[in-house]
């Protein structure tokens, strides 16, 4: 008979698919945000038959300010356990959310910067310019597509860096790939990473683009340079036990490779979903951990409710293909890392509850209620393979 560690685990993060304002949303300027409910209204309803049967529509009634998801009613007999999780760490960005579901609670939170200009301290920018040999323009908070459209031509003419931030703890560097080659952009990000470590900045992000003025487009060569996790995560615990951890998407960047046995660095939802289907056919055991980035990167930040809705419906079709490929004993967890309401003001993430769906063949489907802490994901993963009880680490 196979041991528990021979079973497979699939953890899928729907990047930014929040399900309603968290109790402390006002502290982040996010009162009234509700990614799923609002994008469903804006799109005239969502067709999500698989997620609906799993119990997605059963989650809003249990939330304090829950709103129904148009065209996704509660299931009479859900096929998965369903609930919501409240983030306890300080912050509302990708790194904070993923670290907490892996077992790290940030009590202090990463440093964020004022809208500016300037956003970043001038001495930080001066040192970055000196070490990279190129001037910085921007140095303020902005949406990436907006600031590239505004400053891209100047960046090309002067061979400088566009540096900008957001409401998250990020130091973002944009450069035209035909003007500054990727290897130099990545090297500059590593320089910025070292300079930002004493400030406890969550991520340095390379934002390359191509095209001509008036028609710039960001490329798929984005790279995230994260601060290393300050404590062991569930990924470390699994890999130390010899259980393989396969990461799909930007997770190797978020965890700086820690606890990851193999990384498949795809750049969009379709490629990530195809990779998941391939692994569901071939992966013998271990954890497959995937981030589906398009909801956040292509639609949430750009306030594109229609595109967001279409991406969710495509993901629902993918899940319809994935579920039959799961074996007895497999565990599937679907959740999110934060919200990004495409109907909300601004272009930033939102402090929201996230949905939680837990599925396994023969596994009892039940209401999980509201769970305080994303780290309940780490607890479920540990239980599934028979690891000792996993306690979150507060740092």
Note the main attributes of this structure.
single chain; 395 residues; alpha/beta; Alkaline Phosphatase, subunit A; Alpha-Beta Plaits; 2 domains; 8-stranded mixed sheet; 6-stranded mixed sheet; 12 helices; 20% strand
Question: What fraction of residues sit in β-strands?
Answer: 15-25%
Structural class: alpha/beta
CATH topology name of the largest domain: Alkaline Phosphatase, subunit A
What do the pLDDT scores average to?
95
The CATH superfamily of the largest domain is identified as Alkaline Phosphatase, subunit A
Helix percentage range: 25-40%
* H-E string: EHHEHEHEHEEHEEEHEHEHEHHEEEHE
State the end-to-end CA separation. 40 Å
The CATH architecture term of the largest domain is 3-Layer(aba) Sandwich
If helices are DSSP runs of H or I spanning 4 or more residues, what is the number of helices? Answer: 12
Task: Walk me through the structure.
The protein has 395 residues and is α/β, with parallel strands linked by helices. It has 2 domains: 4-108 and 228-394, Alkaline Phosphatase, subunit A, CATH 3.40.720; 122-226, Alpha-Beta Plaits (2-Layer Sandwich), CATH 3.30.70.1250. It contains 12 helices and 16 strands. It has helices at 35-42, 49-54, 94-101, 122-132, 144-158, 182-196, 234-240, 251-254, 269-282, 294-300, 305-322, 376-384; strands at residues 8-14, 81-86, 104-105, 136-141, 161-165, 170-176, 203-210, 217-218, 223-226, 245-248, 262-264, 286-292, 331-335, 354-359, 367-372, 393-394. A hairpin with a 4-residue loop joins strand 5 and strand 6 (170-176). Helix 1 crosses helix 11, helix 9 runs parallel beside helix 11 and helix 10 packs antiparallel against helix 11 (305-322). It is globular, with a radius of gyration of 21 Å.
């Amino acid at each position: 008979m196979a041991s528990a560690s021979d079973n497979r685990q699939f953890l899928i993060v729907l990047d930014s698919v929040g399900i309603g304002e968290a109790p402390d949303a006002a502290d982040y300027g996010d009162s009234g945000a509700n990614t799923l409910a609002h994008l469903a209204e804006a799109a005239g309803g969502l067709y999500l038959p698989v997620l609906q049967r799993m119990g997605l529509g059963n989650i809003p009634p249990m939330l304090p300010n829950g709103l129904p998801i148009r065209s996704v009613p509660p299931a009479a007999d859900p096929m998965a356990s369903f609930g919501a999780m409240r983030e306890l760490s300080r912050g509302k960005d990708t790194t904070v959310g993923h670290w907490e579901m892996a077992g790290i609670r940030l009590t202090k939170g990463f440093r964020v910067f004022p809208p500016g200009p300037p956003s970043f301290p001038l001495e930080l920018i001066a040192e970055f310019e000196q070490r990279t040999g190129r001037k910085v323009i921007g140095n303020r908070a902005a949406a990436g597509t907006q600031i590239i459209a505004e400053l891209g031509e100047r960046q090309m003419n002067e061979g400088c860096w566009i540096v900008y931030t957001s409401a998250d703890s990020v130091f973002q560097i944009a450069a035209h790939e035909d003007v500054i080659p990727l290897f130099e952009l990545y090297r500059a990000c590593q320089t910025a990473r070292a300079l930002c470590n004493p400030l406890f900045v969550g991520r340095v992000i390379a934002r390359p683009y191509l095209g001509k003025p008036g028609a710039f487009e960001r490329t798929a060569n984005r790279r995230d340079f994260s601060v290393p996790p300050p404590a062991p995560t569930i990924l470390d615990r699994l890999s130390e036990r010899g259980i393989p951890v396969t990461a799909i998407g930007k997770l190797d960047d978020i965890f700086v490779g820690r606890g990851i046995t193999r990384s498949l660095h795809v750049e969009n939802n379709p490629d990530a979903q195809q990779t998941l289907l391939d692994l569901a056919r071939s992966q013998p055991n271990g954890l497959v951990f995937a981030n589906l980035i398009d909801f956040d990167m292509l639609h949430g930040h750009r306030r594109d409710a229609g595109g967001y809705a279409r991406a969710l419906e495509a993901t629902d079709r993918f899940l319809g293909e994935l579920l039959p490929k799961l074996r007895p004993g497999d565990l599937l967890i679907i959740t999110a890392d934060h919200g990004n309401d495409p109907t909300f003001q601004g272009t930033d993430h939102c402090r929201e509850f996230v949905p939680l769906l837990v599925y396994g063949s023969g596994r009892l489907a039940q209401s999980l209620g509201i769970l305080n802490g994303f780290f309940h994901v780490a607890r479920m993963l540990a239980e599934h393979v028979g690891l000792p009880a996993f306690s979150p680490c507060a740092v």
